[in-house]
Amino acid sequence: MKILVCISNVPDTTTKIKFTDNNTAFDQAGVQWIINPWDELALTRALDIKDAQAGMVEEITVINVGLAATEPTIRKALAIGADKGIRINAEPKDAFTVASQLADVISKESFDIILCGIESSDSNGNNVGGMLSELLDMPSVSSVSHFDIKDGKVELKREIDGGQETVSTPIPFVGIVQKGIAKEPRIPSMRGIMGARTKPLQVIEAIQTETLTEFATYDLPKPKAACKKIDPDNVKELVQLLHNEAKVI
Amino acid sequence: MSVLVYTENWDGKFKKLSFELVSFACEIAKTLNTNVVALSIGKVNDDELNKLGTYGASKILNVQNENLINLNNQAYTSVLAQAAAKEGATLIVFAHNNTGKAIAPRLSVRLKAGLATGVLALPSNFQPFTIAKKVFTAKAIANVVIKTPVSIVTLLQNAFGVFETPVAASIEAFNPEIKDNELKTEVKDVNKVSGKILLTDAEIVVSGGRGMKGPENWGSIEELATLLGAGTACSRPVSDEGWRPHEEHTGQTGKILAPNLYIACGISGAIQHLGGISGSKCIVAINKDPDAPIFEAADYGIVGDVLKVLPEMITAVKELKGN
Ligand SMILES: Cc1cc2nc3c(=O)[nH]c(=O)nc-3n(C[C@H](O)[C@H](O)[C@H](O)COP(=O)(O)OP(=O)(O)OC[C@H]3O[C@@H](n4cnc5c(N)ncnc54)[C@H](O)[C@@H]3O)c2cc1C
Ligand SMILES: Nc1ncnc2c1ncn2[C@@H]1O[C@H](COP(=O)(O)O)[C@@H](O)[C@H]1O
């Protein structure tokens, strides 16, 4: 089987978020870019299956829609263990554009399992995976916390509100992964880092696509009023305040 | 024209989020001078369906179909697309939960309708449709413009609230066409946690972190939660350690909660934890370290030993409830 992992390039989670141009653009100055954490975990799960079921998984490819600046992120995925990288040379303007670019390339290839993360840590979108599956007219399973390959089919665990389901799907399909899919992301080894330099990273020119949405402006959350401290010897006062002032109990 | 709402039930009873979604849609429908149509999939009786009218739904599409007992992303997308066409929906509203996240993006492509996910307030503008959503894991807010004639949004739970606007509701059986090739995924086993309050529905949440020291100390968290009719949650290390079930794990990588009251017991307030609770109306922190970052997010705080404070809180709540 061939597995494809869609990776987005996002600011490191500790980045201080600031905006420029009258709050219309994210300030990228000094930002460290990383593989979106969910995508890193998706890749880790794909590699775990490849290691455990030798011969079952032929190849793992990672794909990103982005400009040349995202290549270090793709190389990192190669260093972690992906066999091949693809970059579609387009600015990821909105989720529909990204999904359209991905769908165009994927429809010309033959991937069996296509993995996306539940959300990018910058847009908090939860969009691309579902959109991609619809564009490809493939089944999708979302909120996936585990999956295995069994007899040519894929069996997954999917989180529902207040429980979990076991779902079986034929291939090809799009799996949208979340918490649980892998415990910790794989760290590239020295050998992996050296090897990544010579692994293929194909650049594909973008097609014409449209956007359906635009992040017009940004706001920072209003600073919170200072915390009201209550004496630990007077817990009763806290309960009174919650009842009379905050009116929440 | 109409505003279409995708409602959800839990064993035949609507989840609170369904009433919130209808309330939200109703407020928008007033501005647009149109009506709210609610769609329900699954076995829900007429008494329960009629409750949606209390919050402003004037029509309820009732879908009962053997093939739709469990969520199937493709088939559900078809149901919604057919309902949207039939009702001339210009806005479709989902909850920002596992189901909404599964269907809304597919529907967005099917209808060529722009999607804003995790929105937290009413649209700030209708020409063009503009709505606020959290980005950068709640460190900022983006005002998203939807450029298509039809818009889709997923609403963060508890972001809007539940408001009664009673109208006479008509219930209509709706039998959308579902093709075999839309039923490729198969649910083999369902494992529901039942009999407990759904954490994402809870108005009050009592949550414990590593400062609780060990699973043996959770008795006081559970007792306080029971007294307040609250759900119980925890930080990630607590569920990683197996002190608590993983469904309780809250934060960036776990559940996103927005209750009226969140009581954080022995939780340091790491940015990844705050990402899951910052929508709470009121946060209480109990922590022995006065410099713990949780106090920056909290409205009320006690600097002290949580194992001593909790029993006193239980006593004080009992007194309050006794009055
Ligand atoms: C990519 C990533 C994603 C993550 N996602 C999440 C997530 O979704 N959710 C999450 O929670 N974490 C997440 N984390 C982990 C997060 O960074 C913190 O490590 C975690 O939240 C800390 O949990 P804690 O507050 O329970 O423990 P600690 O940080 O150890 O804090 C314990 C607190 O208890 C206090 N304390 C100790 N004893 C007492 C006492 N007797 N009385 C009162 N207070 C006491 C201490 O002062 C301390 O502040 C993530 C981390 C990463 C890197
Ligand atoms: N620019 C991109 N290139 C490739 N994959 C992407 C891109 N943006 C998002 N994705 C994938 O879609 C998932 C969800 O992203 P989003 O819809 O932006 O929250 C991510 O976890 C990735 O798997």
Task: Outline the fold blueprint.
The complex is a heterodimer of chains A (249) and B (323).
Chain A: E1 2-6, E2 9-11, E3 19-20, E4 25-26, E5 33-35, H1 37-52, E6 59-65, H2 71-80, E7 84-89, H3 95-107, E8 113-117, H4 128-136, E9 140-150, E10 153-160, E11 163-169, E12 173-177, H5 190-196, E13 201-205, E14 213-219, E15 228-230, H6 235-244
Parallel strand pairs in A: 1-6, 1-8, 6-7, 7-13, 8-12, 9-12
Antiparallel strand pairs in A: 2-5, 3-4, 9-10, 10-11
Chain B: E1 2-6, E2 9-10, E3 13-14, H1 16-32, E4 36-41, H2 46-54, E5 57-63, H3 73-87, E6 89-95, H4 98-111, E7 114-119, E8 125-126, E9 129-135, E10 140-146, E11 151-155, E12 170-173, E13 186-192, E14 204-208, H5 219-228, E15 231-234, H6 236-240, E16 261-265, H7 271-274, E17 282-287, H8 294-297, E18 300-303, H9 306-322
Parallel strand pairs in B: 1-4, 1-6, 4-5, 5-12, 6-11, 7-11, 14-15, 14-16, 16-17, 17-18
Antiparallel strand pairs in B: 2-3, 8-9, 9-10
Helix pairs in contact in B: 3-4, 5-9
Adenosine monophosphate is lined by residues 6-8, 36, 38-39, 63-66, 92, 95, 98, 116-117, 119-120, 123, 125-129 of chain A.
